[in-house]
Specification:
2 domains, transmembrane, membrane, 1 helix, Immunoglobulin-like, nine-stranded mixed β-sheet, alpha+beta
Length: 148
């Protein structure tokens, strides 16, 4: 009568290796899928300048920021805080690509040479601090963020 034989250790090792490879592949797929979906959006302010332009007795202040969105295709700015003033952004506040963006400041009086700290607050709650220096001059750009 032939002897009943079970699996040899080599056969067990091959089956365990196959199961392990499949488990690693599924785990990697789930990790890459969900880690990119849960990536926090943010923004980086790499440079900020306030231009003070005087016409007659009226001085207009324009905050110019070089912005770079992080972690998402686009980010939405909720408000800009500078010189103790919060300005809610209502238009042009979707940042899709790196570039220069400007905001006309109102209700504040500044001096050329003054250095101010501020921050950009996104609708997601992320915050990007910046430091801006007031310089004399006029800025003409095309990427306006409307805040008041």
């Amino acid at each position: 009568m032939p002897k009943a034989k079970g699996m040899t250790s080599l056969e067990v090792a091959i089956i365990v290796a196959i199961v392990l490879v499949i488990a690693i592949a599924v785990g990697w797929y789930l990790y890459t899928t969900f880690s990119s979906a849960s990536q926090q959006s943010g923004i980086t302010v790499t440079e900020a300048t306030i231009y003070a332009s005087t016409s007659g007795s009226t001085t207009t202040y324009t905050l110019v920021m070089r912005l770079t969105p992080q972690g998402a295709a686009q980010v939405a700015i909720d408000r800009i805080e500078i010189a103790g003033k919060q300005m809610k952004c209502t238009s042009g506040n979707i940042i899709q690509s790196p570039g220069e963006y400007y905001v006309t400041l109102s209700g504040i009086t500044l001096s050329v040479g003054q250095v101010l700290s501020g921050r950009v607050v996104l609708q997601s709650g992320a915050v990007a601090p910046f430091t801006a220096t007031v310089v004399a001059g006029t800025y003409t750009g095309s990427n306006q963020i409307v805040c008041s």
